[in-house]
Amino acid sequence: MKLIRIVLVSILIMVIGAPTYSDQANSAFKNGARAESHTQYDAAYEAYGQAIRLKPKDPKYMVAYARVRLLAATEDASGPPQIAGSTCGISARG
Q1: What is the 3-state secondary structure (H, E, C) of the chain?
Q2: What is the three-state SS of 67-79?
Q3: Which domain holds residue 45?
Q4: Residue 6 and which of 20, 82, 83, 90 are 20 to 30 A apart at CA?
Q5: Whole-prediction pTM value?
Q6: Is 62 domain-assigned?
Q7: 50 in a structural domain
Q8: What integer is the mean pLDDT of 14-36?
Q9: What pLDDT band is residue 2 in, cutting at 50, 70 and 90?
């Protein structure tokens, strides 16, 4: 009888805890989608990454993560390179 109680309590805990991860992953995914729609690709990348960590086998999260990863990398590479101390007093004028 005691074993049945332990098993039932364990099942109850798993049933109650499972939707929590799903809700957190879905919430992170929605945050990522919102950030992506505002072209905030770095924030979207972080949010989608959190969703992937919570539900690593969900293809919806994987695709969004990969897409925004490419967008974030492209956005970072599109601007001119920023070199610290590049204005050291040398001008292009002769």
Answers
A1: CHHHHHHHHHHHHHHHHHHHHHHHHHHHHHHHHHHHHCCCHHHHHHHHHHHHHHCCCCHHHHHHHHHHHHHHHHHHHHCCCCCCCCCCCCCCCC
A2: HHHHHHHHHHHHC
A3: 2-75
A4: 20
A5: 0.61
A6: yes
A7: yes
A8: 79
A9: confident
